[in-house]
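forwarding from the other thread:

> can someone predict this with guanine?

sure thing
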Amino acid sequence: MSAKILDGKAIAAELRDSIQQEVEKQVALGKKPPGLAVIMVGEDPASQVYVRNKKIACQKAGFKDVSVVLPAETSQEEVLALIDKLNADDEVHGIIVQLPVPDHIDPEEIIERIHPCKDVDGFHPYNVGRLATRMPQLAPCTPHGVMTMLAKTGIPLRGLNAVVVGASNIVGVPMMLELLNERATVTVCHSATKDLAQKVSEADLVVVGVGIPNMVKGEWIKEGAIVIDVGINRMDDGTLCGDVEYDTAAQRASWITPVPGGVGPMTIATLLENTMQVAYHLDC
Ligand code: GUN
């Protein structure tokens, strides 16, 4: 089998267009544009790229962009005070703090300080709890974007054997919850998992988010499986590479996401979607 490509770049462009149209409609009715505050502490190079891309997407969709770049030595108290200010600002509908943060900053306390109704990353324990109890409100952007892509295949997820490789709060755990909520049978693998190859080889759907280039081998993929690669790894020669060995996996899979142009663009489009939900549709 040769896999069909799940074109995240095209699906994200479609989603961003529909968001832009909705914003135009709401603004014509006299509503405020959605406001998104992206806070970055320090100068992590990968974060700088993500934050710049978020800013551009925000502006193109007609959002108010309230990005704040703070020096690496900013204290925990200063970040918390900024969040308090943004929580109280009715032109700001969504607040995110780009991760990772410098070592002296405690990300858990920061995440909990963001009002759950402005937590467009979906990382606050309130929103994680809502997802875990099948009452999702603001769901983490990368896994939710993956669900939007999976819907495009038209393949029902109910009853599929899904294997999620990686158990992070940003990708693996919310991905498990999203798939479980669609009644897939989900196995979550992590660094202590025994015989990863065996687990992956039984999967109808594999989602990999570990940040290790080519960690999942193409030969592990079951014939006809759906392969979703969340990894974006920059190689020494400057090229980007996923967590899955693409060429060999694509020979066995039914659907596969490329890197770049797969899951990556969906994360930003879903962030806009969450922010628009807060601005116009969430009663919270
Ligand atoms: N770092 C990597 N991915 C993300 C994300 O989705 N949100 C935030 N805030 N930081 C990240």
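The two ends are 47 Å apart (CA to CA). thats all i got for now
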